[in-house]
Amino acid sequence: MIKSTGILFLVALFTLLVTACGSDEPGSLIVLTHDSFDIGEEIIAQFEEDNNATVTIQKSGDSGEALNRAILEKGNPSGDLLYGVDNTFLTKALREDIFIKYESSRMEDVPSQFVLDDTFHVSPVDYGYVNINYDIAYLEEHGLTPPKTLEELTGEEWKGRLVVQNPATSSPGLAFLIATVSYFGEDDDYDYLDFWADLKENDLVVKDGWSDAYYTNFSQYDGDQPLVLSYATSPAAELYFSEGAYSTPPTGNMLVDKATFLQVEGIGILKGTQNEKLARKFIDFVLDTPFQEDIPSRMFVYPVNSKAVTPDFFKYAEVPTLPSDIDADTIDENRDEWIDSWTKVVLR
Amino acid sequence: MPLLCVSDLRKAYGDVSAVDGVSFSADEGELLCLLGPSGCGKTTMLRVLAGLDEPDSGTITFDGREINHLPPQQRDFGLMFQDLALFPHMDVFSNVAFGLRMQKLPSSQVEKRVEELLALVELGDYSHRKVHELSGGERQRVALVRSLAPAPKLLMFDEPLGSLDRALRESLQSQVHKILKEVGLTSIYVTHDRDEAFTMADRLIFMNHGQIIQTGSPEETISAPADGFVARTLGFKNILAGVVLEDGPMLKLDCPIGVISANKRPGINTPRGSVQTILIDEKAVSVSNDSANEINSFQGVITERVFRGYHYELRVKINGGELYCHAPLESREVPSEINQPVSICVDAPSIRFLDSDE
Amino acid sequence: MTAGRLLLIVPLAYLAIFFIYPLGSIFARSLGDESNFGFEPFSILLNDPYYLGRIWFTIWQAVVSTLLTLAIGLPAAFLFARYEFPGKTLLKAISSLPFVMPTIVVAMGFTALFGAQGLVNSALMTMFGLDNPPVRITNTLTIIFMAHAFYNYAIIVRIVSALWSNLDPNLEGSAKMLGAGSIQTFYHVTLPLLLPAIISASLLSFAFSFTSFGVVLVLGGPEYSTLEVSIYELTAKLFRLPLAGALAIIQLGFTYFFLLLYSKFQEQSAVRVDLKPRESTSRHPTRWKEKIFVVAIILMLLTLLSPLVALVVRWITLDGGFATNQMANLFSDDRGSYFHLSPVTIIWNSLRFALITVAISLIIGTIISYTITNVNRRWRNLSDALVMLPLGVSAVTLGFGYIIALGRPPIDLRGSWLILVIAHSLVAYPFVIRSLLPVLKGMNSNLREAAAVLGANPARVFLLVELPLIAPALLVGATFAFAVSMGEFGASLILVRVEFTTMPVAIFRFLGLPGTANLGMALGMSCLLMVVVSLGFIAIERFRYKGIGGF
Lengths: 348, 358, 551
Hints:
- By secondary structure, chain B is α+β, with helices and mostly antiparallel strands.
- Chain B has eight helices and 20 strands.
- Chains A and C meet through helix 1, helix 2, strand 2, helix 3 and strand 7 of A and helix 5, helix 11, helix 14, helix 16 and helix 18 of C.
């Protein structure tokens, strides 16, 4: 009657939904990473074919959350590798001792400037530069020339025209904070905090994440600010994703010596993995040219392998001549203090 | 052997004892009326009988079987709720058919039976009406046939006609009575209304404070109410307490209205100095202008007059007490104006003695 | 009764395994990390004026937001409860859309409207010949309040109108006959009767504003961080787990305190009302005054929805209107990304997770609601507040709790989609409870008993009598469970495997890269989300099964 058919229907529906959701296959290689990670499907398929394995890529929040997860799971990792430890958190990760040492033979193609961990627990994979982008059309329309120094940003003409990310919640935000430390120094007459205080006076806009700053504040996307903290590769990406609407990028890079930040991302094998051999092969694979050459048009960062050829549009992804010179250990020692001081000056 | 036997039933909610040691029985086809003021435990009594609440102690046997712990749906009883509890999301048909469907009757039979029942209460055309579209009387009738539909072995009514106007109530009363008697259903009917009880009942059960005070046919109880409570429930108003001044064939009692003489009743012990409760039927009190110096004559003042259709009901203040009495309409000899002094005479042989009042 | 007690094991086990245990584990780890388990983090927090300020800000912004939400939600609830008008179902469906939309998308809508180059400012500047944009509300408190109202008014509308539409209009009529004006009638009759629903809805709205994360993060900016945002910073960025744990406990404590206050108040306000079928309580507006009212409220709702409209417009007009291209991009896979998934699969993902969430939430929520209705008064408030607690827990804390607590056999859920629907249902089932409890408390228990006496066993009493009567409330609960799951992406981001990609996650992924095409695909996916969710709402609204939903 009513009851039985109704219940039957519900049970059937539920079973359908549950089975439709699939199940877990153990024994495969799981790569933990952050939500910005992307790579070509055929690249991964190639690895799977060559090694007769299945690869599952498991995103777990942003880079901070992914690392945090790996730390909390220490000894009982839910993945075999962690992709995406950058130099702002490298020392922290190494101190937590979550990785197995592995020096890939491919490292010979990686220039030494990118080798941040000489113990080879974390191998570099890609790198990028954090710097300020500007909206070319907006600047022309308002008769402005792109700023050449950071000091200029505190001037009247840039009042309310810069949006940056909160270093406490965003990795480019943190990178730029470190860059300002490198540029202005910590104990000088006019140190980084003085600069930030002046920026604040000059109606600096702070957002918590890259996406909201870029897509809701940047004037390129109908926002109010023509200057946004982003990456050196962003203009190239703008061109790449313009579907042919532009022949040159609509945005430009503000490259100031010592005020851009070199962010190197690495990969490491997580302690406790059951698939160490396969994981090593995966690191070799990641450092090999097919993977390396796919990186630019996926994540819009540079491959570390010097033999990797970058795509044509990457000529607009300028490389700063002199990025900030603060090493990972110094960052690790001072990160919290810098963020705290910054928060006190800019937000409170 | 009676169909339903209730013995020493007790049920308390927290510290409040709602049913406190009740025993009674009902024969097959008998219609019992449970009478009592609100809060006397009659609704609890029904709930326990229906299986909605479990008794704390005591036993309920039905058809020779103890049913204390039988869940309501397995008892085959019917209960018509005070608020009717019609299912608001169903139409009239589905409401009436509910119990039949629970018995898994084939739908053709359900349909036939519901139609018969609706016709019985003259609601044949209403089967697809929604409950909220019905008038009060129509709802009562739907609720009635809904409880009748599954042919319960015992049907209970919890003051089902309380909210209706008098004419409708009376017509429904006799309708219900007729139907119940036709079907030969054993029923328990809870009410606080004497007239309703008289219309319906084969036997009355008076309840107060969770206990049964008296049982008997309407005639028995009205001629010999057990105590002041029963008497009051039956509509008697002149219930007085008095101290025995003189014991003998003719007693003398000191009452609030003065010293009253009454015939001694056999079997009742009335020693001098004891307190007795007496009942004076309103009809045994005569009112007149002249202050005749007869036995049991009193002087008083009319304080209230209510028109009762065939007579006035007067409330007369006498000394420290008062009496109710009837006065004929349109009579010159009998005063019936408020504040008028009157002479009252109580018929000594008709004075009855009750058990102590509450 | 025993069967009922057995059923209770289901929600208790669910809460113990998926809420208390992970939360306890993460707290133990956070606070016990530095060898000496202690209260030091608490004293650090409570002596730091910054964190005290955050606590105070979190509370008062939630209060203001809730009041504003009520001010907008109540008239709309009245509209949907009492009047029939063309397009009512559609309007009701789309007016609940904000609840589902990812904050960043909504932020884009707000920018498109109120930004310096936005529609409002452009219009005002042209009209009055101004040089500077007159409306500057981006990154202000105003926009936080507006956004909270925008997000949460659907809660008020749905929950309050569900009760309102079953309320006998004669009650209001008789008040008017007794000489009360419209306002007096509302104040003295309607408001007290609706109070349980209003308080329920306000509580949910308050809880959402209190633990607000995305709105504050994206629209407000870092100056206005709530406790939830601070916990996120401390956990995910600063790796200060002890402080984060302590702050999460403080947030939970405050939530529990507010929940207790609420349930005390709720207890006093509960009234038993005879409910009427909704078909008999609403009608077409007839008098001029009514028509004006109806039109005014509809206009207000449309204004409220304008950020969403702006999004659609933006999508269509983006860079000279190649919206169709972007739709094609969504469907084609010409870039061959590992994470590319057909929109059809993504929609199906979202839908199936949402439906499972609805099923879990309805089951858990209904059992808990019945239990709460039946426990004695002393325990009722405590347990009512306790089961609502998932609303007050920090998402990131619970997320990491899952990772450490549910990561070992027999329960290793870290890679499973189950963790997603469990996380979703933890936020969703309180909606079921809140919409169900007022109805259960108001339900005439004689109906249940009448059915039992007529021979129905408890299961049938539930299916044939109670279920149809509580169905409107269950459908409200289901609507929110569906909405919560469709819109959630915090938990989803912790667990993104390509095969589990949901619509909000896809939007977020598109917005992770610069470029017009990415924006276009994000907007296209947002429009798809709006369509799918609206259809879902309408389907739930229209749900009819054997008399369920008709009442």
